[in-house]
Design a protein that fits this description.
There is one protein chain. This protein folds into 2 domains: about 170 residues, Rossmann fold, CATH 3.40.50.2300; about 140 residues, 3-Layer(aba) Sandwich (Rossmann fold), CATH 3.40.50. The longest helix is centred in the middle third of the chain and has 18 residues. By secondary structure, the protein is an alpha/beta fold. A 7-stranded mixed β-sheet has the order 1-3-2-4-5-6-12, sandwiched between helices. It is elongated and about 65 Å long.
Length: about 350
């Protein structure tokens, strides 16, 4: 498998310095469009750009705004909730027409949402929802993490069933402070429930979305249970660590080869796409970043037009595997990253 990490790192190194500065694209907020109407301005704030998914989401939202001739003001919080709050307040001071926010977590974003609410500025949370509160006005556009994970693991279990033997399984858990990680963990166990005769979970590896912690945990799990033959990662982002550990244990083999470990993940990144192409990955649950970006921008426009809509928009995503790879790859954001 060709490594994509050096290229990705290089892209980030070029993007981050510019992205971290609060900057506008196009004319001033008082600019007008070709019809003489006031041109809208939307502030886009991401907690981080440290994974391929966030970079893809960031670019998809900006592309969707540009298609609609909407100005963009952007900022990156670099993992700092206090900085994110100040950046949102700057958006408010600039009197943007709407805000798209990827919060650090579901709770620390509440003051930022309140600031937007008090200013009467519509706000949409992208891919990471806020904690439920009847006092907040916002729209969450998120992947249906639990359902998509359940569907992905259910597909993996069918592959295990076809093998005619029982499999010992490992699940790699994300940071449980992230509600998305909680949904993926629950979805995994939803799928396993009732299928214990096919899949027995013998290892649960915490990762906290950290490569080193994930790799150490997978190595230890494989040493304790060398007959593990079913692995699900709560994010494709962690596949480099998973693959390294499997290779060290001589357990990284293509589909159909002796010793193949049934392998699945969640996200749909470029590494997962290449692993599908190369024949090592059984399946992954793909977050439809293009659907989410389109829905986020449309939700802002609907709010500005005083149209009522749902407070939660779910991205159903889709499971991609060897059988539908050619059909689905054009919608897999990681495949498009590779082609670029």
């Amino acid at each position: 498998m060709k490594s994509l990490i050096p290229t990705f790192t290089k892209v980030l190194s070029l993007m981050l310095p510019a992205a971290m500065l609060l900057s506008g694209c196009g004319k001033s907020p008082e600019a007008t469009n070709s019809s003489g109407e006031k041109q809208l301005t939307v502030g886009v704030n991401f907690e981080t750009l440290q994974t391929e998914y966030w970079v893809a989401g960031f670019e998809a939202i900006k592309s969707e705004l540009k298609k609609r001739n909407i100005q963009i003001v952007e900022s990156i919080a670099d993992g700092d909730a206090n900085r994110q709050l100040q950046q949102v307040r700057t958006f408010v001071t600039r009197k943007v027409d709407g805000i798209v926010l990827v919060p650090k977590d579901s709770k620390t974003c509440v003051p930022a949402i309140k600031a937007a609410n008090e200013a009467g500025i519509p706000i949409v949370l992208f891919n990471r929802p806020a904690a439920e509160s009847p006092d907040l006005k916002l729209v969450n556009v998120v992947a249906d993490n639990r359902t998509l994970t359940r569907e992905t693991v259910a597909f993996m279990i069918e592959q295990a069933r076809k093998s005619g033997k029982k499999h010992k399984a490992m699940v790699i858990i994300g940071d449980l402070g992230d509600i998305n990680a909680v949904g993926r963990k629950d979805g995994f166990y939803d799928a396993v429930k009732g299928n214990e005769a096919i899949v027995e979970v013998v290892a649960e590896v915490p990762s906290e979305w950290n490569q080193e912690k994930a790799r150490a945990g997978v190595v230890n799990a494989l040493q304790a249970n060398p007959d593990i033959s079913f692995v699900f990662s709560s994010s494709d982002f962690l596949f480099p660590s998973v693959v390294a550990a499997l290779k060290s244990a001589n357990k990284y083999h293509k589909l159909g080869e002796p010793g193949h470990v049934i392998l699945g993940g969640f996200d749909g990144d470029a590494t997962a796409y290449q692993m599908l192409v190369d024949g090592y990955l059984d399946a992954t649950g793909v977050q439809d970043v293009y659907f989410e970006a389109e829905q986020a921008v449309q939700a802002l426009l609907d709010a500005l037009a005083k149209k009522s809509g749902p407070s939660m928009i779910l991205d159903p995503g889709f499971v991609i595997h060897q059988g539908n790879l050619q059909e689905k790859k054009s919608r897999m954001w990681g495949a498009n990253v590779v082609r670029k």
